[in-house]
Every structure is written in C-alpha cells, then in structure tokens.
Amino acid sequence: MNSVFLNKAALAIVMSVGVAWFSHVVSDVVVPHTAPAKPAFSLPGLENVSIQPYLAQASVSRGAELARQICASCHAFKRGASNGVGPNLSGVVGRPIASVTSYSYSASLRSLQNHSWTDQNLSDWLTAPAHFAPGTRMSLMGIPVVTQRADIIAYLHTLTAPLPAGKNSQ
Ligand code: HEC
C-alpha cells in the first residue's frame, strides 16, 4: 500500500462522514420534529358526520342485529332490566346523558350531564366513545361505518316507548 492510496482512502472516509453529517443537518431543517397539529389525512367516517340524512334510510332490523352483536354483552335494552357493564339503554334517545340513577357512571360521562342523547350525540359517541368523552369506561373502539351507526340509532329509537302511567323510567 502506498501513501497515495492511503490518502485517497482517508479522503473518501472524511467525505462520506461529511455527506452523512450534512444530510443529517439538512433533514433536521426540512423535516420538523414536532407532530403536525392536524393529521395529514383522516380516516373516512371517523370525523363527525351529520347523521340525519342516514337516519332516513336506516333499518331498525339491521340495527337490532348489530346491537345484539356489539352492544348486548354490556347493555340491557328492555325497560326495567338491570344494568350490565353499561347502563340500561331503554329510552336512551333524548334522555339526559348519564342519568340512570341506579348506574355509577365515570366522571367523564357525568361531566356531560347537562347534554342529552340526541341522534347526533349518539352518532358522535358511537363513532369514537373515547373521543366524545375522554376517560369514559365504555371500552368500545367505535363504529366507523356511518350507515351502521344510523341503523343502531334507529333501533335505539324503538326502545323509547312511552312508560305506563305512574311508572318511573328504568
Ligand atoms: C365493553 C362493554 C360495552 C359495549 C360493548 C358497549 N358499551 Fe355502551 N357503555 C358501556 C359502559 C361501561 C358505559 C358507561 C360509560 C361511562 O360511565 O363512562 C356505557 C355507556 C353507554 C351510553 C351512555 C348511556 C347513558 O345513560 O348516558 C350509551 C348511549 C351507550 N353506552 C351505547 C352503546 C351502544 C349503542 C353500544 C353498541 C354499539 C355499546 N354502548 C356498546 C359499556 C359498553
């Protein structure tokens, strides 16, 4: 090995280290370290969409089937039935949030007690419960398909038959 070769090898090493360092510095400038405030894309259906147009075409029987598959492990639907992991859902449409007195709600849902379960609130809740009420104990990821939410809400409407006179709700 002569010294010319060694010089060339040393120069090559110095240059590649220099290039690596330079690209590191440049990438630091070009790619910001902080996450963007707004995601660059959003998953379809996960943003709050207006549920009203979908309710017009919703199917109560499909909703009943979905509720049986997804919700029934935690919720009772029949009036007077005892609460499960979650509160009884009979008459839930239109009633104030976290208002079943025999059920112990999370602080998160209780903080929304001055709102009611409108169709839109139910849709937003079912889209992503933890987004609607951060800290909620309802451990359901959410139902991203808007037509399925509409079907379920249409079914929940059927649980709102007027109570016989003199009976308390639940
Ligand atoms: C894994 C159990 C679980 C499943 C599955 C589940 N829930 Fe819940 N749900 C809960 C719990 C627990 C709460 C109470 C949450 C809290 O207090 O933060 C709740 C609360 C609710 C409430 C609020 C009721 C009120 O009185 O304010 C609604 C509405 C609701 N669930 C609807 C549904 C629907 C519809 C489904 C099916 C699509 C569903 N849940 C599936 C556990 C569940």
Automatic annotation (TrEMBL):
> GO molecular function of the protein, one example?
metal ion binding
Keyword annotations from UniProtKB, A to Z: Electron transport, Heme, Iron, Metal-binding, Transport
Gene that this polypeptide is encoded by: cycM
As given in the record, the signal peptide range reads none
Q: Does the keyword Electron transport apply?
A: yes
Q: Where is the Cytochrome c domain?
A: 58-160
Q: Which domain of life is it from?
A: Bacteria
What protein name applies here?
A: Cytochrome c
